[in-house]
User: Which sequence fits this backbone?
């Protein structure tokens, strides 16, 4: 049995500017899974940097707040209870359009790796 409390996980500032807690990762935890899970937070009226995961798909599960989700050329308003699928190599960002902190889970398969993420600035791509 493996149990981990998110309160005991260090919060970092991710490459896209969100506040992130990597809560489950097969390279860091004793779990036999092919995905990683992180808890992300975005402050009110803030937007993450445009980025993409080259080889991994990603699922966002919205826990709290209201956001505008950008994936490639599509834009949708999302909120609590919504699940968003982000295909590999899709340019993405999320904007907190609410008055409260935006909180969501990021599920990445295969598990997130730094070398898989690219931050997009204007027309330039920066590998992390």
Assistant:
């Amino acid at each position: 049995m493996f149990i981990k409390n998110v309160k005991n996980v260090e919060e970092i500032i991710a490459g896209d500017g969100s506040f992130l807690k990597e809560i489950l990762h097969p390279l860091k935890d004793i779990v036999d899974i092919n995905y990683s899970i992180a808890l992300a937070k975005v402050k009110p009226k803030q937007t993450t940097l445009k980025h993409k995961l080259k080889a991994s798909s990603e699922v966002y599960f919205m826990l709290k707040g209201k956001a505008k989700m950008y994936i490639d050329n599509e834009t949708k308003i999302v909120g609590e209870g919504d699940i968003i699928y982000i295909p590999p190599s899709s340019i993405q960002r999320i904007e907190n359009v609410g008055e409260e902190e935006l909180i969501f889970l990021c599920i990445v398969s295969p598990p997130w790796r730094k070398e898989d993420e690219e931050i997009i600035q204007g027309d330039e791509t920066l590998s992390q």
Q: What stands out?
A: Residues 124-128 have pLDDT under 50 and may be disordered. The longest strand covers residues 57-64. The domain at 6-127 is CATH 2.60.120.10 (Jelly Rolls). The chain has one domain: 6-127.
